Amino acid sequence: MSPRIALFVGVLAACFPGLAASQATPPAQPPACAGPEHRQFDFWVGTWDVATPAGKPAGSNRIERVLDGCVLLEHWTGQGGGSGKSFSMYVAAEKQWSQTWVDSSGNRIVLTGGWKGDRMVLANAWKGRDGKDMASDLTWTPLPDGRVRQVWRQSSDGGATWTTTFDGLYTKRP
User: What is the DSSP letter of 98?
Assistant: First the structure.
């Protein structure tokens, strides 16, 4: 800094003592997604082989943290060739998780929910192609052996009966 500028800054600081204080670096803010709620789905992060409970391969899945750790990005590849992706995040203002799924069949599913007991539960409701009211719930349960069980159920009668559309056991790759 030149001597003239230093003198000018010194004069300003002497005449306006609060000016220097207002220019101080603000205190560091915690990362936007640092709260424990944002970590509730961390058990799902990793690269997984997915099979039915009977052991038949169902596909593979890679879940990674992106966007400064605020979002889980899912990369699904089904055994039959279909693929899909989802974005999952804890929405602090709503105090719930949100997931948007899209796939190679042109489907989109938007789910919301949260941690219930020993599992993550996300659900939605929509109109089927025939105009009927439909509902889904998906659960992800971390198992004691390190695997994760995902179950997707659907109802077309207001939740009186449910049909399991997917039941997968995730085994983490080394």
Answer: E
Q: CA 141 to CA 150: how far, in whole Å?
A: 6
Residue that has been written with the tokens 């997984």 in this structure? 48
What whole-number distance in Å separates Cα of residue 92 and Cα of residue 35? 9
Q: What type of residue is 133?
A: D
Q: Give the DSSP per-residue string, 10-67.
A: HHHHHH-HHHHHHTSPPPPPPPTT-SGGGGTTGGG-EEEEEE-TTS-EEEEEEEEEET
CATH assignment of 36-172? 2.40.128.20
Over residues 42-53, the pLDDT tens digits come to 999 999 999 999
The closest of 142, 41, 150 to 90, measured between CA atoms, is 41
pLDDT tens for residues 116-129?
999 999 999 988 77
Measured CA to CA in angstroms, residue 67 lies from 31, 102, 117, 173 at distances of: 11, 19, 28, 24
d(CA 143, CA 137): 19
Q: Rounded to whole angstroms, how far apart are CA atoms 38 and 114?
A: 11
